Q: What sequence folds into this?
DNA sequence: TCCATCCTCTGACCTTAGTCAGAGGATCTC
DNA sequence: GAGATCCTCTGACTAAGGTCAGAGGATGGA
């Protein structure tokens, strides 16, 4: 990592923490303490939520949230009720007054944004917002974490289901995992392979599997990125991670197959140094087969 | 102001407050409470500082700072001593242990920056840091405030001195305000004119004067931007502000003169719609004369 | 039916980050 | 030399954010 880049990021953190961070907290809070405002925001407008879910998303102590909720309730902003089917769980929703209060936070947030733009001319605003979009996108990308999970883990299963559902829509004649090679994703667990899941704020947003047959080339399967997490370079990152793990495992060749409907994927493979080769398996859904030679890594 | 832009800024604030802001505070703080860490940072390494100056820069209450200093002193990180010449004032400097602690904050800050860059590939890092630089520059630009000051105000006088000093270096044969037209900047006060000072974090970083002779075109004088505040579009902003004020005052023509050594300024005037005209005064330091027709504003 | 578990709430407690009103010493101005 | 002014410090106080250890009701499984 380049030292100048680290210094640049630090400078950015200082500027932004000062200009945005401070304002963000002490503007947005306004009359309401920041904790309450945060909670109000998180409860949002869309109907009823489990208290537990909200709490987990904010990462707060249960006692603390309980107290915050009581304060909001006292001001008539939220209604807390037991869950209809499990009366241990409590649910919370905004009242009309709560929705108004939240809209007020919205306005404050707009005012803050506007106060940043106001002193700038049109061209500067244009440049600022597009640079902000870029920073936001890349910071989001850097927030995504990769983890090796068992293919039966709920997050992994969610990705595999989404993968199959999406292919079902894209392929002529649909997609049925049972007809494809690797009908059982259980093969993608140690020692015969591994399964990687990408998560953003705890939500699974992508996956990729690697088969590591002994004495044969490694094979990449089930590479998928959730539609709303596209444009973050995530597929490329998953691919690079699998290649590195394959290389560390001693593989010097990695292969994969893909369907002609998956144009972006095919482009990614070509860009990443894969070359098209004759069919090396009889996957019924595949139209293209690729391979890439790996440079062995230390260890 | 474009609604999409406001929304973009808000989205940015959310992402950044989450990813940078939170980490910033709770990483950087570490063992030391954030207030102490901030103070430690501000005292910095460069020798001895007046407590008052440090306090003003952080915008904190004197009692609060006193307490923070005592805590730092207890931990042996700073030494507080009376000012040698005015024993009401106290000065503060880091001890060796304080310098080490501050270096530790530095490392934490680096670690935070590195943790943002780590998950990205080389191209993404490149793009992130340059977008951050752009955002930082433009947010800094939007932090600059303009104020009408009396030319005798210390901040205004500082700008005028710097202006003269810089011209003195740039012009063949130096620059002596007494030889120029408008030897007395006092003419740049109401009702005969006005003087605008740009400030960044309270420090004066630029200025521009406007003469408003009754029945004659307005005239722009003493436009200057401090070297370390260049590249923020500040000269352009000062110019636009003066033009707007002139137009509101009823002027439909604004004029100015400039020296050939000031190439960037000359370029700015041309870009901003000024056209070169024959000399309209006998300013000894001028080589170019410009004018611009204003479109009258409402009111 | 009973016990373990889950979820929420309450009370007690702690640290930070401030604010405010003087007290008290040092300096400046007349 | 006497105020007025300046600067720092102290004590008293407040609010927010948060943690921890149970209490107590609801549910699920043996």
A:
């Amino acid at each position: 990592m380049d030292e100048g880049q680290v210094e640049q990021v630090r400078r950015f953190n200082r500027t932004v923490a000062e200009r945005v961070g401070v304002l963000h907290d002490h503007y947005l809070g306004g009359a309401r303490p920041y904790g309450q405002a945060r909670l109000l925001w998180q409860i949002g407008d869309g109907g009823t939520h489990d208290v537990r879910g909200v709490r987990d998303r904010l990462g707060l102590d249960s006692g603390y949230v309980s107290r915050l909720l009581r304060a909001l309730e006292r001001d008539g902003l939220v209604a807390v009720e037991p869950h209809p089917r499990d009366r241990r769980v409590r649910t919370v929703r905004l009242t009309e007054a709560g929705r108004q209060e939240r809209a007020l936070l919205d306005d404050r947030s707009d005012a803050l944004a506007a106060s940043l733009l106001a002193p700038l001319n049109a061209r500067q605003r244009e440049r600022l917002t597009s640079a902000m979009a870029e920073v936001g996108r890349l910071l989001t990308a850097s927030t995504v974490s990769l983890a090796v999970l068992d293919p039966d883990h709920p997050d992994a299963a969610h990705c595999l289901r989404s993968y199959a559902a999406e292919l079902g829509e894209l392929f002529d004649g649909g997609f049925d995992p049972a007809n494809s090679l690797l009908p059982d994703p259980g093969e993608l667990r140690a020692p015969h392979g591994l399964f990687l899941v990408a998560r953003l704020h705890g939500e699974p947003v992508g996956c990729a599997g690697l088969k590591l047959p002994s004495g044969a080339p490694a094979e990449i399967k089930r590479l998928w990125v959730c539609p709303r997490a596209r444009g973050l370079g995530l597929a490329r990152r998953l691919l690079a991670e699998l290649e590195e793990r394959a290389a560390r495992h001693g593989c010097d060749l990695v292969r994969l197959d893909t369907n002609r409907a998956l144009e972006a994927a095919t482009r990614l493979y070509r860009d990443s140094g894969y070359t098209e080769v004759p069919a090396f398996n009889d996957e019924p859904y595949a139209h293209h087969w690729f391979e890439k030679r790996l440079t062995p890594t230390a260890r």
About this structure: The two ends of chain A are 22 Å apart (CA to CA). Strands of chain A lie at 49-50, 78-82, 90-94, 145-148, 193-200, 203-211, 218-225, 253-258, 275-277, 288-293.
